[in-house]
Write a structure and sequence with these properties.
Blueprint lengths: L6 E6 L1 H4 L8 H16 L3 E6 L2 H9 L7 H24 L5 E6 L2 H4 L1 H16 L3 E6 L5 H4 L6 H12 L4 E6 L20 E2 L4 H8 L9 H13 L3 E6 L16 E3 L7 H7 L6 E5 L1 H10 L3 E2 L3 E5 L7 E5 L5 E6 L4 H7 L7 H5 L6 E3 L4 E3 L1
Parallel strand pairs: 1-2, 1-5, 2-4, 3-4, 5-7, 6-8, 9-12
Antiparallel strand pairs: 7-8, 9-11, 10-14, 12-13, 13-15
Helix pairs in contact: 2-4, 3-4, 8-10
Bound molecules: glutamic acid.
The site of glutamic acid has 15 residues, from helix 3, strand 4 and helix 8.
């Protein structure tokens, strides 16, 4: 039941934190803080992913950052402390301590960094601190190069999935997912519950007619990461008064139901990783992996691309060019180049050593 959710990640988008003049919308932000404090006092564990650093910084510097990643980075460096200051001050009024965590997707790709981040965040929650997270824009241009600035949707879903949250709430300036574009069709209906994110549902966000529903695609991607990690996800409108308190109500926003859960390691493999290479396999290997949950053997490999080390993440493609799995390579690209198409028994002869019979062992392989 969604109301039993103990650990909740709230993601606030730039649009909902700014007013029409591009200034911070204090009325929104303070009402979020007040309602989040209420949930916190009810015993919920709260993590916040907040956007708005670039916008605030640009306003302060009186610059237009469009088209320049470097300017966005500079603006984010100015805006981030301002943004954090407002959240911190607000929560202080309710006696709640906050922490600032700035992340890039890469912090999740490196398993050591990821495990250390997990420990830090768990310690913060144990100590009743609310972590306030944003992308580390200043050091990571790639975080800012995405056309729509909607990457915090993905970041928040990764945080939620990795931190064993029960619910991800994406607070935006739209009511949720509609059956057609509400800007074009006044009779568009809000979909209040999505059992499973099927291609049909995805089409609602990505169809040509939905151009006005900015950011719905990335929100759905976020919802997909969350639900396939066994979490509830919700998209709701921050302009609705006291939406945070109403987050468990059926009649607010769109709720996405959790799907089967993947283990932590498999989630780590499936999401938020730097894919270092591509392995193309034959049909027999594909069938063995998909139907019989088998490992990937060298004999099934037709081709490889990219340079990667043993232990890095690779994508597995079929001969039609469709990615169907990801996994941790037990051999480097250099080794795989030599052993591809050969039987596992020959690995030792070819390389002079052998780590595993499998190029990707089944525990390190996840279907995507
Ligand atoms: N990190 C960006 C900012 O604080 C926002 C990115 C996003 O909204 O996805 O301005």
């Amino acid at each position: 039941m969604i109301e039993n959710s103990k650990r909740i990640v709230f993601k606030f988008g730039t649009n909902i934190l700014r007013n029409e003049d591009g200034d911070i919308s204090l009325s929104h932000l303070y009402s979020f803080i007040e309602d989040l404090s209420y949930l916190y006092k009810q015993g919920k564990e709260i993590l916040i992913v907040t956007s708005g650093a670039v916008g605030l910084g640009a306003k302060k510097l009186k610059i237009d950052t469009s088209g320049s990643t470097t300017l966005k980075q500079a603006a984010a460096s100015v805006g981030q402390p301002l943004l954090m200051g407002i959240w911190q001050d607000g929560f202080e009024k309710y006696g709640i301590t906050t922490a600032q965590i700035l992340l890039t997707e890469e912090d999740f790709s490196n398993r050591k960094k990821y495990l250390s981040l997990r420990l830090t965040l768990h310690k913060l929650l144990e100590n009743k601190v609310i972590p306030i997270i944003n992308q580390n824009d200043a050091v990571s241009p790639s975080e800012l190069e995405h056309a729509s600035f909607s990457d915090n949707d993905k970041l928040s879903s990764i945080v939620a999935s990795k931190l064993d949250a029960n619910l991800l709430v994406m607070v935006s300036d739209v009511d949720g997912l509609f059956d057609k574009n509400p800007k074009l069709y006044p009779d568009a209906k809000l979909i209040s519950k999505v059992e499973k994110i099927t291609p049909k549902i995805e089409k609602l966000a990505s169809g040509a007619s939905s151009g006005g529903r900015g950011g719905m695609i990335t929100k759905l991607t976020g919802a997909k990461v969350a639900t396939s990690s066994g979490l509830y996800a919700k998209i709701c409108n921050g302009k609705t008064p006291n939406i945070i308190r109403k987050v468990f109500d059926d009649n607010t926003g769109t709720l996405f139901l959790p799907q089967n859960t993947l283990s932590h390691k498999k989630r780590w493999i499936a999401y938020a990783t730097n894919i270092m290479g591509k392995i193309t396999v034959n049909d027999g290997a594909k069938e063995a992996i998909i139907k019989s949950q088998k490992s990937l053997l060298s004999i099934g490999i037709d081709d490889i691309e990219g340079t990667f080390k043993r232990g890095e993440i690779v994508s597995v493609y079929d001969k039609k060019g469709l990615e169907f799995a990801r996994g941790i390579a037990s051999y480097s690209s250099e080794d795989i180049e030599k052993i591809k198409g050969h039987h596992s028994d020959e690995i030792c002869n070819i390389l002079g050593y052998k780590f595993d019979d499998d190029v990707i062992i089944k525990d390190n392989l996840v279907l995507v």
